[in-house]
Fold:
Amino acid sequence: MNAPSVAPLFCVRCGQAPPVQGAVCAPCYLATHTPARVPAIVRLEVCAHCGARHRRGSWGGPLASLRPAIEDEVRQAVEVAPDVGSWAFRLEGGEHDPTNFEYDVVVTGKAGHVPFETRTPIVVHIQRSTCTRCGRRAGGYYESILQLRAQGRTLAPEEVERCGVVIDRVLAQLHASGDLDSFLVKGETVKGGFDFYLGTVHAGRSIGRALQHEAGAVLRETASLVGRSKDGIDLYRVTISVKLPHARVGGFVGVGDVLHQVLAMGPRDAKLLDLGSHRRVTVPRATLDDEPALDPGAARDAVVVSESAGELQLLDPDTLRTVDVVKPAGFAAGGPGVRVVRWSDRLWLLPTG
Ligand SMILES: [Zn+2]
Ligand SMILES: [Zn+2]
Structure:
């Protein structure tokens, strides 16, 4: 017959305190047992250019600060014994030099029933390299070209500038949604227009769609095979032709024998101001493709000589002779000068104010 097992009253190791874990007291348990191990050094790899973090074989987004990433690396590096349930740690110390941070890692928790606190020095070494994105960017890598052109005329510098604003906005939206590869590589003036080189095809398409929507541009996409990836996938480079309408927003277009100012261009319609009546009209934009157009610079100042209920007498800015111009309904010069556009042998009044 076996004798019934009896729990010892005192620690079998020191014989003094009551046992709390197996047959030993808490200090003896911790003296023979390591609840948490911390390596002397851990490495954190970040991109020296954008601050992205390299982790598990891939590059993440740029870090706002190093501290959370340092804590994460340390957390991954702490090894706790199997009998440790919940545990936590804190770092005491800080930057030693820009590439080395020195801390005490203080781990607290419970090993079995025994609370513990360990303190271990650690060096967090910041390894600075170049991420895939920054490497590609520096190497001029691009996947799409957006070719900005105007239909039947040369592109105005303001149009390139406006396109640049749209590009900045669309890229900022893509970045905010986590697409960090959609960057502008470069932009250059070419014969007939301006070319923008972009990091991804998605960026080129998104910008193209924005210009189609906001500026009435006509899009055409072509792809050319440029090589093959390591895994045997064909690599294409996509060219997105973005053609702005020949009638510019802010400029003028003749429809029939009436001059109109172009107020807005959309993918299907154009909003115009009839300069004979000063009424707004919407027309399918395709109907304007073959109409004569003037650019916004065609508007001139003219001096008002006299004004009656139905007419204005103006000093023609070209001949300096007085001419009579019929006023659109409700028009009032309200001052000594008005803006006019010469087209089809007459002056057309622009709205005041
Ligand atoms: Zn003991
Ligand atoms: Zn980078």
In short: The helical segments are 26-31, 66-77, 132-138, 157-176, 201-215. The mean pLDDT is 91.
